[in-house]
Specification:
A hairpin with a 5-residue loop joins strand 3 and strand 4. The longest helix is centred in the C-terminal third of the chain and has 23 residues. The strands form 4 sheets. The protein has a 6-stranded antiparallel β-sheet with strand order 11-10-9-12-14-13, sandwiched between helices. Strands 5-1-6 form a 3-stranded antiparallel β-sheet. Strands 2-3-4 form a 3-stranded antiparallel β-sheet. Helix 1 packs across helix 2, helix 7 packs across helix 11 and helix 8 packs antiparallel against helix 11. It contains 12 helices and 14 strands. With 413 residues, the protein is of the alpha+beta class. It is globular and about 80 Å long.
Length: 413
């Protein structure tokens, strides 16, 4: 057995004092104190005994600690902590399994310059094998712990009244504030119509393929480059796109999952921005491509009928090139992804196509298929587009016209 150990630097702890059903199923119940550890290495949650928690405090995350220098009681807990990926053997080239994964993952994170809190958010919100229809087994104590950790305890009566009151207000108003009324603008032209026709479409016609011209236009006008420069101070090449990017870094990559596009074989592709081309990573048939859309979207019912799914990933190494350990950079990335999504919506609106976006995806499954590690580069969301069904949609929002200050809304608001 290797003789030195080290604790991961990316562990977070909190105490949960609510009762958990059937806690007798845990070994060492008499020491169970509801100490929950969140690992930013793998996005997992672990219940720790008091002894395990105390042991972690005795192991450094900066320097290797000789096992022989620890008490016998502490050494007893090391094996279970290694199995959980919270501690790893530090100076042995022949280590394997969970310890090797922890050590390698830690090294990658250190080199990528993540802010620890941002990293925790990223990994804890990444799914694997999730389905929106899945109902957790109430007899599974570990699953119950996970649910409790994510769902704060609320007073049912108080929260119901609070949320019901909020939900009745589509518009926020300051009743006593002085108001300056403005005339409703009446701009004309294709741009205004494109804005007004923007909507989410979830019912698409799977029998009508997307033309290669529309496919090319969407890729170019949403994710393509139309200019370049050198970043002042850094000297690195920066590109210009139709959507803004923090620091002009443009770290977003897009991987089209082609299902039904004229002249393009179904499969997973990468969009080569430099050449405006798509690079085939894995060829599929239509049924396989639709099954993959199901898997990626947590088995949501509508993505599989799109002509193409656009998987958005972020090259975090590109972001941290300028914003090392910055606690705001991860939040800014989600704003940036929103800009690109809106540009896709407007492009599809102009072309007469339907579009959708969802962040409810199995990130880890997507990352595995793309061959990325989720730390240096990781998936965040997917968009889709295709031809809308010409029949009345059942999943789309059918909105009535609203004119500020004139439309009278009844009790249905």
């Amino acid at each position: 057995m290797p003789q030195t150990i080290r604790r991961s630097r990316y562990l977070f702890f909190y105490l949960d004092n609510r009762p958990i059903a059937d806690s007798s199923r845990f070994k060492g119940t008499d020491e169970f104190s509801k100490i929950i550890c969140l690992s930013a290495l793998n996005g997992e949650m672990y219940l720790l005994s008091q002894n395990e928690f105390l042991t972690l405090q005795k192991i450094s995350s900066q320097n290797s600690v000789p096992l022989e220098g620890l008490s016998e009681e502490v050494r007893k807990n090391v094996t279970s902590l290694v199995d959980k990926g919270l501690v790893y053997y530090a100076e042995d080239d022949e280590i394997s399994g969970e310890s090797k994964y922890t050590k390698d993952r830690e090294k990658t994170i250190n080199l990528t310059a993540w802010h620890p809190i941002s990293l925790l958010h990223h990994v804890m919100s990444s799914y694997e094998g999730r389905t929106w229809k899945k109902v957790p087994n109430p007899d599974d104590v570990y699953d119950s712990v996970k649910r409790l950790a994510h769902e704060p305890e609320l007073d049912v009566d108080d929260s119901a009244g609070f949320y019901n009151e909020l939900s009745t207000h589509a518009f926020k108003e300051y009743e006593t504030a002085e108001r300056t009324k403005m005339s409703i603008p009446h701009l004309d032209g294709e741009f205004v119509e494109t804005l007004k026709n923007r909507k989410t479409t979830r019912v698409m016609d799977p029998s009508t393929p997307l033309s290669i011209s529309d496919f090319s236009s969407i890729l170019y006008y949403v994710w393509g480059a139309n200019g370049y420069t050198r970043l002042a101070g850094l000297g690195h090449l920066a590109i210009r796109r139709t959507s803004p990017s923090g620091g002009c870094l443009h770290p977003i990559e897009v991987y089209p999952l082609v299902i039904n596009v004229e002249g393009i074989k179904p499969g997973i592709y990468h969009y080569n921005v430099k050449e405006h081309s798509v690079e085939l990573l894995r060829e599929l048939d239509k049924d396989m491509a639709r099954s993959m859309a199901d898997k990626f979207s947590c088995q949501q019912t509508y993505p599989r009928w799109a002509s193409v799914i656009f998987i958005s990933t972020v090259r975090f190494t590109r972001v941290h090139l300028k914003y090392k350990y910055h606690r705001k950079s991860y939040a800014a990335l989600h704003l940036e992804l929103g800009h690109f999504s809106q540009t896709l919506y407007l492009s599809c609106s102009y072309l007469g196509l339907g579009a959708f976006v969802t962040a409810y995806i199995n990130n880890k499954d997507v990352d595995k298929l793309l061959g990325i590690d989720g730390i240096t580069e990781g998936s965040i969301m997917i968009n889709g587009c295709g031809h809308p069904m010409r029949t009345e949609p059942t999943l789309d929002l059918i909105a009535k016209e609203f004119i500020p200050g004139k439309t009278k809304i009844g009790s249905e608001s």
